[in-house]
Amino acid sequence: MPKTKSKRRVPVTATKGKTAYKEAPVPLPPIHIRGQEKVTIDTSALGSVALGKMGKSSMDTRRRINHFHVLIKQCSKLEAQKTACAGLDAQQISAIDQEIDKVSREMAEMGGLDWYQKASLLGQCKQRGGDTSRWLVPKLRELGVDNRQSGPRLRLLDVGALSCMNYAKERKWIDVTPIDLNSQEPGVHQQDFLDIAIGSTLPTRNNDKQAEEDSDDELDLFAAPFDVVCLSLVVNFIGDPSRRGDMLKQASRVLASNGLLFLVLPLSCVCNSRYLDDDRLQQIMRYLGFSQLYKHHTAKLAHYLYRLDNNSGSNQPAQDDAPQFRKKLLFSEPGRNNFSIVV
């Protein structure tokens, strides 16, 4: 029989001359960014969440992430209900506030947004499914945009980035700007995607002190439009259908002429929703000036690659335009979800 490698054991207690042992956790190696100023990413933070909270398996972790999504949607609906109904009395407002506090407490008990992002980052590891950039890069090569020997690198905005390493192997021809609302890594800029205005000299920061600490390399992050915008599993994270539409509209604003939009949604958003399917999504994207280049469905994800048409700028809806694609019932069968996008 082949020999099995024994796990390292460490002493934890000593009772009457006897020592009890437990298996020591295997530390994850630090990650370095190559080709740039080196930044060490402390992956030990992944182990800071209790095993019971993170999940004992990938399926358990996914179940907990999905429940976190449900709580976010509940909180968004309650906030919208409180804002939209101006005729509510004090008792009704108090009842809504109590429900919001209840949902917020449950999210906090799960670990909050920090826990969610660490769980998602763990799910992005090779052992837990990989990252969606592995589908995008071959498609970019098929389009020939990797042949940039004499010109500038392809500018890619990675929205909701969990790691700054997703495009590290393509650094010779991809200049990636990873952003997230609650950055978990030094290489990911803390920035709200909807606050970006092309031509601005600095990303929007939560405080002036953090802005002062920005390096000179960050001064022109949003000075020019991007060649590629990546919205991978971020549109579905937003609970408000109108804000999801705002994300797609914002993508058209920050893209260069003929720029590319990489959109990834859970498959259930387009295959098991009462209000959205592939046809409806394509109608929305055509209205925003996008033409579909590629579509690929896996067992769990729906991948789309769009190109922004040259003359789409004149057709872009204004911020205060009435929605052209409202929440419309397409399927009434039981068992479907309520995911929708309003534009």
Explained architecture:
The chain is of the alpha/beta class and 343 residues long. The protein is built from nine helices and eleven strands. The strands form three sheets. A seven-stranded mixed beta sheet has the order 7-6-5-8-9-11-10, sandwiched between helices. Strands 1-2 form a two-stranded antiparallel ribbon. Strand 1 and strand 2 form a beta hairpin. The radius of gyration is 23 Å and the shape is globular. The N and C termini lie far apart (63 Å). Mean pLDDT is 75; it is low at 21-52, 124-130 and 203-211.
- Look at the helices and sheets and give the structural class: alpha/beta
Share in helix = 25-40%
Biggest sheet: strands, sense, closure? 7 strands, mixed
What is the rounded distance between the termini? 63 Å
Q: Number of helical segments?
A: 9
Strand content: 15-25%
Q: Taking strands numbered 1, 2, ... along the chain, how are they ordered across the largest sheet?
A: 7-6-5-8-9-11-10
Quaternary? single chain
Shape by Cα distribution: globular
Give the beta-strand count: 11
What is the H/E order? Answer: EEEEHHHHHEEEHEHEHHEE
**Cα gyration radius (Å):** 23 Å
Low-confidence stretches: 21-52, 124-130, 203-211
Overall residue-averaged pLDDT value? 75
